[in-house]
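Invent a record, attention on tokens:
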Amino acid sequence: MSEKSALFMARTTRFHEFARSLTTTLGVEVSLATPDSPTAAHDFDLLILDSDGIRSDRIDQIAKWLDDRGGVPMLVIVDDEALGTLRLPNHAHADFVCPTATPNELKARAQRLMGEEETVAADVLNIDNLEINLATYQVTLDDEPIDLTLMEYSLLSFLATHPNRAYSREVLLHRVWGFEYCGGTRTVDVHIRRIRSKVGPQIAAHITTVRGVGYLFKD
């Protein structure tokens, strides 16, 4: 990934050392900026944005700014506890990563956004007319993108990658939402209903309700 550059944008300095390390891990030149003054005198190939303390509407504005610069891709760093509310702009060429990501994961996501990724077949799951790309967090139905929230995607992809096994609502909460989630099991039912409505009847038929237990994905 030679002769590439990235702009690291953050409101705090918590990841500045991490940003500087990208010169080694990604082989790119890294510059620093803040979301409140996002001007950049030079071109860059990737924006890495620390979303801590930044409202979603500001992220939308930054995405529009990137569009005006020729559609520069954006990699958003989001804390684990904020994943449930994360919504990347639909029009943006964007992805996200958690602060705990390994250098290899960060490199893979940055390479994909900068057009240097080789898609691995194992990362793409096809069920009938549905395709789940586990590397890019994208889901398509008949080659048309489906607008899933992050938690809807996480629940669907978990069930689809663990087929023919029934999972209780409690287990799904732990595996998908995390052990610190404090909401009730009804959350799972709500998300399953929304997923079924979005993927259509053919795919919805794969998501089976197991009475007295929870849910099972039939392959």
Notes: The first strand starts at residue 4 and ends at 9.
